[in-house]
Amino acid sequence: MSRYADAGRDLRLDPDGRVGGYFKHAVYNHWDPYEDIEQDLIEQDRDRMMNAGEEAITEDGFDDLRQTVALFGAGEEAVTEDLAPLTIAMDDINDQMFVASQVYEEAKHTAFFDRYWREVINPVAEHHDIEVTAPTDDRYFMPAYEQLFDDTEAAMHRLLEEDTPENRVRAFCHYHLAVESVLAQTGYYGITSSFSERGDDLLVDDAPDFPNLAGLVRGVGFIRSDEGRHVGFGMYHVQEHLANDSVDESVVQDVLQEQMPNVARIVSFSDSGFLDAAPLVEYASDKLTRRIEIITDSEAEIPDVEELVTLDDGDTTTRSPAASDD
User: Gene3D superfamilies, per this entry (predicted)?
Assistant: First the structure.
């Protein structure tokens, strides 16, 4: 039989299935990190911080913003690279297509944060006579961050040596759940709460009146939409492996609970005294608990994409209906 033939299926794709629905959602919700976050929004962020007084743009407070952008940018770059083993391991064409779309989206996220550093962060630092730094500066990366991403890389590369259902569950839990669902989602909550008029204000009562950053928030909105699909994809496959491949749910709990201290240390990075980290840690813990409850229950329904990207403020940035729930 030709290697291109497959007696087990009539057509090559299943566009109405769960993963096929995620891929369609990715296509419908395509966005451009250079065009869809409008230049005037980027310039508005830059001008607002340039025009803010020294009381608002302090070096400590501005460095918190820089560290946030640096952590996100490095994280997106890392996961763009670390997804490669999964593209080799997955053998279903629907999965392969979705993972290909995810690699592309992670690269777009990397491009957005790089653009923001070049067009906003550095010009504002120069304007306020604050030291100009690189987003790759070692000062921005704490041991917990390095541990979390080193563990994720190791879990993904293990698939190249021993591709088993249990190792796939570990890889999905590290990447799609600990990094994307818990850490990243908490970070997005922190950004939208601190730099927009929506959500809860995480700044302490006597913190400087930092300006709203509509360009940063808009970019994060698009990224959240992408990562709702990524999280759903990971949750779906973990749930399938637990139900069908005799993988014990303790594997999920062990990975996520092992990484929760790293997540807590990362989201508590600020030592400027302006940010109340306690709500962020609580938010991350709640996300982790809810994810474990869903994926360890074979009868539980995975939320649709819009619900997965909602940050409890009712806001999402999407252009199409949710992916299929089939």
Answer: Ribonucleotide Reductase, subunit A
